[in-house]
Automatic annotation (TrEMBL):
Protein name, UniProt field: Receptor ligand binding region domain-containing protein
Keyword Signal: yes
Coarse class of the protein's main subcellular location: membrane
GO molecular function: G protein-coupled receptor activity
Lineage, opening ranks: Eukaryota, Metazoa, Chordata, Craniata, Vertebrata
Topology in the lipid bilayer: Multi-pass membrane protein
KW RNA-binding (keyword) present: no
Species: Cirrhinus mrigala (Mrigala)
Subcellular location: Cell membrane
Keywords: Cell membrane, G-protein coupled receptor, Glycoprotein, Membrane, Receptor, Signal, Transducer, Transmembrane, Transmembrane helix
GO CC terms of this entry: plasma membrane
Domain Receptor ligand binding region positions: 1-250
Length: 254
C-alpha cells in the first residue's frame, strides 16, 4: 500500500501482476478450465472472472497440512474434466503434489505454473507436468559471483552453519570432526574442490530472484552513498531519511 508505505520498494514483481498475466494466458489460448493452488488464488480468480474464464474448482494445499489433504487435492485433479490446471504454488508444495499424482497419473493436462516452480529443473523428472508453461523472472549473470562461490574455503564454510552443512553434505566429510567426536564422517582435509561439483549451488545460470535482490541492494547502496558522500568526503553521522533514499532511487530509475 503506497499510501501507508510510500518509500517501500519490491525486489521482485507483485504476485498480483503474475496472477493477472496467468489469467490472460488462459484466455489467449482459449482454455476455460483451471485450478489455482494457494494464496495467489484470490487475485487469479478475480482476474479470471474479469477475463470471462470458467473455473471448475479451486483447491489450496500447504506442506504443513496432513497427507490426507494432499491426497484429496490429487483426487480432485484426477476426477476433474478440466483440461488446464493453473498451479500457483511454491516449488516445495508443487513437488509434493506431483509426487502424489505420479502414483496414479491423471489424464494429460496442460499445466500453467507460477514462477516459483515453473523454472525449477527438479520438476523435469515428473512426466505429469510435461509441457508446462508459465511466467518467470528473467535469468541473469551476476559478474564475479561464480568465482566468489568457488573461492569458498573450508575455514570460511565453518563460520556459517548453512555453509558448513552444505560443505559436509557435498563432500561427505566433517569440518567439525576435531571439535565433535560424535560424527562418523571422515574429516575434511582441504583438498575438496567446489568446481568439480554438479549441483544447484554451483549452477549460476539460473539466477533470477537472486539477481533481483542483488540489483535492489546495489540501488539502495548507491542511494545511501549519494546522500552521505560528496566529491571530497563522506559524513558518517548524518541522519538518513527514507524519503531521501526514495528520491535518489527514483532518480536512478529515471
Amino acid at each position: 500500500d503506497k499510501r501507508q508505505h510510500p518509500t517501500f520498494f519490491r525486489t521482485i514483481p507483485s504476485d498480483h501482476h503474475q496472477a493477472a498475466a496467468l489469467a490472460r494466458m488462459v484466455k489467449r489460448f482459449g482454455w476455460t478450465d483451471s485450478d489455482y493452488g494457494n494464496n495467489g488464488m484470490t487475485s487469479f480468480l478475480k482476474a479470471a472472472e474479469e477475463e470471462g474464464i470458467c473455473v471448475e474448482y479451486s483447491e489450496a494445499y500447504y506442506r504443513t497440512q496432513p497427507s490426507s489433504k494432499l491426497k484429496r487435492v490429487a483426487d480432485v485433479i484426477r476426477r476433474s474434466t478440466a483440461r488446464v490446471i493453473v498451479a500457483f504454488m511454491s516449488a516445495g508444495d508443487m513437488r509434493l503434489l506431483l509426487q502424489e499424482l505420479n502414483q496414479q497419473p491423471p489424464a494429460p493436462k496442460q499445466w500453467i505454473g507460477s514462477e516459483a516452480w515453473v523454472t525449477d529443473p527438479q520438476m523435469l523428472r515428473f512426466n505429469v507436468c510435461i509441457g508446462a508453461v508459465g511466467f518467470a523472472i528473467p535469468r541473469s549473470v551476476i559478474p564475479g559471483f561464480r568465482n566468489f562461490l568457488f573461492d569458498l574455503s573450508p575455514e570460511q564454510a565453518l563460520t556459517f552453519p548453512l555453509l558448513t552443512e552444505f560443505w559436509e553434505s557435498s563432500f561427505s566429510c566433517s569440518l567439525k570432526r576435531q571439535k565433535d567426536s560424535s560424527t562418523s564422517m571422515p574429516g575434511c582435509d582441504g583438498t575438496e574442490d567446489l568446481r568439480a561439483l554438479q549441483n544447484p549451488y554451483t549452477d549460476t545460470s539460473q539466477l533470477r530472484i537472486t539477481n533481483m535482490v542483488y540489483k535492489a541492494t546495489y540501488a539502495i547502496a548507491h542511494a545511501l552513498h549519494g546522500i552521505i558522500c560528496n566529491e571530497k568526503q563522506c559524513e558518517k553521522n548524518i541522519k538518513v531519511e527514507p524519503w531521501q533514499v526514495h528520491f535518489l532511487i527514483m532518480e536512478q530509475l529515471n
